[in-house]
Design goal:
Elements: H1 2-27, H2 33-43, H3 55-65, H4 68-80, H5 87-107, H6 124-131, H7 135-147, E1 152-156, E2 159-160, E3 165-166, H8 177-180, E4 202-208, H9 209-216, E5 235-236, E6 242-247, E7 250-253, H10 254-261, E8 268-273, E9 276-282, E10 290-291, H11 292-300, H12 305-312, E11 317-320
Parallel strand pairs: 3-10
Antiparallel strand pairs: 1-2, 1-11, 4-9, 5-6, 6-7, 8-9
Helix pairs in contact: 4-5, 4-7, 5-7, 5-11, 5-12
């Protein structure tokens, strides 16, 4: 017993001899750099003087905390929507992108994330090249939108919806059957008048008659030369998009003309003067589902992301996936 007591006394004495000078120095004003390094070397106190993690290390840690699906959603939001859009619009985009991915994974029977499904995607390197000096700020905003909606998707009758979206509408979104033939109950035409304030919501393109004639001839014999080519009165949907329009001796779909001529949308007017056609388009994209600039407009008005998504996808509800 006496030996154990003596051993403990010696240990405490040794600790006092080693640590007391450090404590006194700290109380009297701290260490200078030289004394700090000596202390670390002599007393093995490296653990107490660890440097703070670098920004890159912090980013790597945060990225590792997100699973592949959520990292993918970050990449989609980074590529599809301006990072300075309101946070509620970014959240709406995150939920739409996640839902679209889950839907495609189920359709393909895949347990892993699919990258070639029609959504734009930017990895970390692409984000840094795109944002430059603003990378840290913008990436943090995208990460917030994704983490605050983590695992959340939209469903209709218990199934993940086809969460399509476009840049901006012509003032109303389009019914699904006017874009892809099939009627989808949650892809109904809704008001999106905030899109009128989007940049270049109305745009003008001028093309030579020969260029138009050559581009549209891929769909069949127009029956007239470029010099005699004209457009007839279009058939429009209730939302204003062209469903069909006579061109020469053919009747073409608005989507065919948009694709062939590279127009921004199928809501357009066309006029001819001399050897040129002038097309004036409204909106940008196919027009179905969520309008990204419409989402921004609603967020600016104070709508949250659930309200935004419920506006553009009729009758949907929200679920959390594991």
């Amino acid at each position: 017993m006496f030996k154990k007591i003596l051993g403990l006394f010696l240990i405490y004495a040794l600790l006092a001899v080693l640590l007391l000078p450090l404590l006194v120095t700290a109380l009297m004003g701290g260490f200078d750099t030289a004394h700090m390094e000596q202390a670390k070397a002599l007393y093995s106190l490296e653990d107490y003087f660890q440097a703070q993690p670098t920004t890159e290390q912090t980013e790597q840690t945060e990225q590792a905390e997100l699973n592949e699906l959520e990292s993918y959603v970050m990449g989609v939001v980074s590529a599809e929507m301006p990072a300075l859009f309101p946070m509620e619009a970014l959240k709406a985009q995150a939920v739409a992108a996640r839902t679209y991915q889950i839907r495609k994974m189920e359709e393909n029977g895949s347990d892993t994330v699919l990258y070639d499904i029609g959504q734009a995607y930017a990895d970390t390197q692409a984000q840094k090249e795109k944002w430059g000096a603003q990378y840290a700020e913008y990436a943090a905003r995208i990460r917030q939108a994704v983490t605050e909606t983590q695992g959340e998707i939209m469903v209709y009758e218990g199934e993940p919806i086809l969460a399509v979206f476009h840049a901006q509408s012509a003032g109303k979104t389009e019914d699904s059957e006017n874009v892809w033939v099939q009627t989808v109950p949650y892809l109904r035409s809704v008001d999106s008048s905030g899109d009128h304030n989007a940049p270049d919501n109305t745009a003008t393109v001028t093309l030579s008659a020969q260029t138009v004639w050559e581009a549209l001839s891929q769909y069949g014999d127009l029956g007239v030369s470029a010099d005699a080519l004209t457009f007839g009165t279009p058939q429009r949907s209730a939302a204003g998009y062209i469903l069909a329009i006579p061109v020469g001796n053919l009747t073409l779909e608005g989507s065919q003309i948009r694709t062939a001529l590279g127009l921004r949308s199928t809501d357009f007017t066309v006029s001819r003067e001399g050897d040129t056609f002038t097309f004036v388009t409204k909106g940008y994209g196919h027009g179905a589902g969520m309008s990204q600039y419409g989402a921004k407009s609603l967020a600016d008005e104070g709508y949250n992301y659930h309200e935004i998504l419920s506006r553009y996808y009729t009758g949907i509800s929200f679920e959390k996936i594991a």
